[in-house]
Specification:
40% helix; 3 domains; elongated; 453 residues; OB fold (Dihydrolipoamide Acetyltransferase, E2P); alpha/beta
Length: 453
């Protein structure tokens, strides 16, 4: 018989099927005439604290809604949870008051590391053809936490399931033969019907004859399958906590903050950079990173800043590039990223530092910066104290400025532009500047010559 599509009754990710159940709400059969609910929870990416909490919450909500069962639609390269948190999640799956199934799909999906343990803990599990499971890691307390299928964990050494063995991954057929999964299922619909056929769900299907005369299996009219996924904000932070995204956000934050530092004031670059930095910090705090590598990445931008101050790429730009490469290669420990985001990040920073950053600094706030010799002699006002560095305003635009240490400027004091050094203005007070003293010495010298004559 051909497989018919399941009836879809998707709930909003924000509605999450319903509210939390109270203490007196116990799982049980739905009321007469009520739809029979099956909840499909989308689990993509690394299983981090956000995803773990969401899975537990959805199981609790489904129990309160008297759902027939929960299906975890899984495609994950591993987990960022520590052993205690991972066992806590697996306990919630194992001890749920309703059947919990895990489907690794579609074709090409995977369940590695902690996600692989999630597969073997479920009441019923299957992998789509072309999917894989593997890279099992030893987890303290894992074996003792699970019931009916716990004996499968005792054979990991024999089956070569530990990450240190020669066999790291199992495809759908081999995983089923090794007892890691119960069947193969190319679609989520096939998997849900397999759950019913195995007795974990009550009969939910019926045979219908299509217009072409082919008999197909379809869900009963009262069966509703609800697909749920992470809410927007949770999904944003979950996405940020992946190696590639965290790395690119980190480089973006450092680049934009560096740009804003050399353009004076707090602008759009600072706001965007701060937002990127916040998301990158969450990812760095969630993932397994090497602190020394993170220090190198930050140090690289300090080196870039030295040459930006000088106005052109020189020795320190080369040093920053080498340090950034070393830090990027060693940044992540357990969950490494592919070469594509690494290449994108390094090339992007290179272009930004060598050409884009100087151009953006010159054009910030629409300030005319080509042929700036006309600015020499222009007057302005000190926005902050300039002693010897600070921020000034000239012709309505803010600039980084430097003054002679002997003649510091206070905020609000009137000044004159005496020279240019890259993107930094050399300024001096209108009266008492070094140039005035030089002129005064010249006049005194002339007066002395006249008296001698």
């Amino acid at each position: 018989m051909a497989m018919g599509g399941l009836v879809a009754g998707p709930a909003s990710a924000h509605d999450e099927i319903g509210g939390h159940h109270g203490e007196n709400d116990a799982p049980g059969a739905p009321a007469d005439g009520a739809p029979r609910l099956i909840v499909v929870v989308e689990v993509n990416g690394l299983i981090d604290p956000i995803v773990a909490s969401y899975i537990r919450r959805q199981i609790t909500i489904a129990e309160g809604r008297h759902a027939l069962g929960v299906v975890l639609h899984l495609d994950s390269a591993g987990s960022t949870l520590d052993d205690e948190a991972l066992v806590h999640l697996l306990d919630n799956v194992q001890l749920a008051h309703l059947p919990v199934g895990v489907w690794v799909g579609p074709s090409g999906a995977q369940a590695l590391g902690g996600a692989a343990h999630l597969v073997t803990t479920a009441d019923f599990a299957a992998i789509a053809p072309g999917g894989r499971i593997g890279e099992f890691t030893a987890v303290q307390g894992l074996v003792h936490a699970h019931g009916p299928d716990a004996e499968r964990f005792h054979h990991h050494d024999e089956d070569g399931l530990h990450s240190g063995s020669s066999v790291r991954f199992f495809d759908a057929e081999v995983a089923m033969g090794a007892g890691l999964t119960h069947s193969t299922a190319p679609t989520i619909g096939e998997f849900i019907f397999a759950l019913s056929d195995a007795g974990y769900l009550p009969p939910i299907g019926q045979e219908v004859t299509g217009d072409d005369g082919v008999v197909r299996r379809a869900p009963a009219p009262d069966v509703v399958v609800s697909f749920v996924s992470l809410p927007l904000i949770d999904g944003l932070f979950h996405t940020a906590a992946s190696p590639a995204i965290t790395y690119l956000l980190l480089l973006s934050a450092l680049s934009l903050l560096l740009l804003d530092f050399y353009t004076g004031g707090i602008g759009v670059a600072a706001v965007v950079g701060a937002g990127s930095g916040l998301l990158a910090a969450f990812g760095l705090g969630t993932l397994d990173i090497r602190p020394w590598a993170l220090v190198l990445v930050v140090a690289a931008f300090v080196a870039f800043a030295v040459d930006i101050q000088a106005g052109m790429p020189r020795f320190w730009t080369g040093v920053g590039g080498v340090v950034l490469l070393v830090g990027s290669l060693g940044l992540f420990g357990e969950h490494s990223m592919s070469w594509i985001p690494l290449l994108v990040g390094l090339v992007g920073v290179g272009v930004f530092v060598l050409s884009g950053l100087p151009a953006l600094v010159r054009t910030r706030y629409g300030t005319a910066t080509v042929g700036r010799d006309w600015m020499i002699g222009a007057t302005g006002t000190a926005v902050t104290d300039v002693d010897p560095d600070g921020t000034v305003e000239v012709h309505g635009a803010q600039w980084r400025a430097r003054v002679n240490r002997l003649t510091p400027l206070e905020a609000g004091e009137t000044l004159r532009v005496s020279g240019l050094s890259g993107v930094v203005l050399e300024v001096e007070p209108l009266e008492g500047a070094a140039v005035d003293y030089r002129e005064l010495r010249k006049k005194r010298g002339k007066a002395t010559v006249s008296e001698t004559e």
